[in-house]
Known about the structure:
Strand content: under 5%
Largest sheet: none
Number of helices: 23
Shape: elongated
Order of helices and strands: HHHHHHHHHHHHHHHHHHHHHHH
Amino acid sequence: MALTRISAKYPPQIDPTRTPLAFGARAIPRLNKELQNDTLLTRQRAVMSLCDHLHDPEHIATALREGIAESLKKLLCDPDITVRQKSTECLFVIAGHAIGRDAFLDHEIIKPVSNLFNDSEDIARKNAHKALEMISETPQGAEGIVACELVPTLVEKLKTELDEIKELILDTLHYCMRVDTSKALASDAMKTFTSLLKHEIPVIRSKAARDIMDLSIPLAGKDKAVEEEAVPELINLLNDESADVIANAAGAIMTISITTKGKYTSIGGNAVEPLVKLVNHSTSEVRVNALKALTCLSEAPEGREVLLLHVDSIKARMNDETPAVANAAKVAVKVITWKP
């Protein structure tokens, strides 16, 4: 289906001509000075030239040494959309490098970037989310985002943001929940993720199911998933056309079904039959997650009773060409055929 895309084109009245770069080592200092100029056109040209200049990784360290991070931090509040847009884009480029991610934390840039979550311009919000998503990919960055109390804000933005930005938010929350799930649980994230399982775009359904799996790792998350009726929606996704959606849905069911309450909720929702069909899926990740989910469900007498009828098809996967699938099948058969 056709999707609306956020445009990065500049307003027609803006002169796109970049400011002339100084030679060699003087390039960054001159740009840094022009970024702080009172003339709007000078700032616009400087930030656009800087963005191009930073795409060469060799210039990142020099820029940070010359104080570019602090200058960009100030420009995040600039009244001009072009300056804000390109400033966040510069920070996104910087965040793609280890020293850039360190600079985000050292100069406390996370919070100022998050202020653009409420910007009136779509492209500024998108660039802000791209920058923080990049930062969140490291444990230190994710911890920084959590420490800034941004998880509740991110969860709330999932309800109203454009689909293109929702994808970025789901990724950011994915990394944040690797270091701390309590903030997301307290923000009612499980309910929000569950609502996105019905989204029309496959990648959002897939990432929502993955985030439910992340949030279900602690016991409180598993109980919350059952409470918010996430399991029936996840079971419906086992018949999805997208392999990524199916794999993450099966993985979420597996995680939730570790508890007795989760097992019986999944069994009661008739999860066994579709999971059995998935052990022969063409995608190895789907096969692995389906087998692990079935292993959890077979620990309940009712689940084992049904799975004993399908144990031969599961045994066939013990010779799977993918080692992870073969190992998961061996464990599944062992649990299913266990006798007291």
